[in-house]
Every structure is written in C-alpha cells, then in structure tokens.
Design goal:
0% strand, 99 residues, mainly alpha
Length: 99
C-alpha cells in the first residue's frame, strides 16, 4: 500500500499511471477511514470523484434496456411470466411485454 500523499494537489486523471496512483492512495483510507469534516475526509471524497470520473470515461457502462431490467428483476426475485401476467391482468399481456 502506498503512503498517502496529501501534499500533491488533486486534478483530473489523465493517464493509467495517475489512475493507479489515485487507487493506491484511496486504498489507505479503507483501512482507516477519515473523520468527517477533516482535510483527509475532503481528500477522500475528491479522490472518489476523480476515480469515478476516470472510470466512467474509460469504461462506460451502458444502462440496460428496460425489458432486460425487468427480466433481471424477475429472475432475482424468482418471479415467472405467470406472476407478471397476474400483475398486468393477463399472461398474454405479459408475453407481449417480454418479447
């Protein structure tokens, strides 16, 4: 684990090396979380933001199609098409939705 380098100003991450350095620094906070309202807590929050922004820019995750989200939730909850049919009033309507 790298030492925390609170002396360096934070900026947007432009390279994998800067990303890796930011990850190393934030990792130290997981073992010993900073107290709220302290400079260390502010630095942690800023690290979190710039790491998140870098990841969104380089590895975007597209939102699921609505039907895929419905299917996923049905699977996670152990629901069937018949359950969905009862919700919509008919199995035929549920079948049309799931196409």
């Amino acid at each position: 684990m790298a030492k925390r380098t609170n002396k360096q100003p934070l900026k947007l991450l432009r390279s994998r090396q800067e990303y890796a350095t930011a990850l190393d620094e934030i990792e130290g906070y997981f073992d010993k979380p900073p107290k709220r309202g302290t400079p260390a807590a502010n630095r942690f929050d800023l690290l979190e933001l710039i790491i998140d922004e870098y990841e969104k820019r380089h590895w975007p995750i597209e939102p699921p199609r609505p039907i895929d989200a419905i299917r996923f939730q049905m699977e996670m909850r152990g629901r069937t098409q018949a359950d969905l049919g009862r919700l919509f009033g008919s199995r035929q309507r549920a079948c049309e939705l799931l196409k």
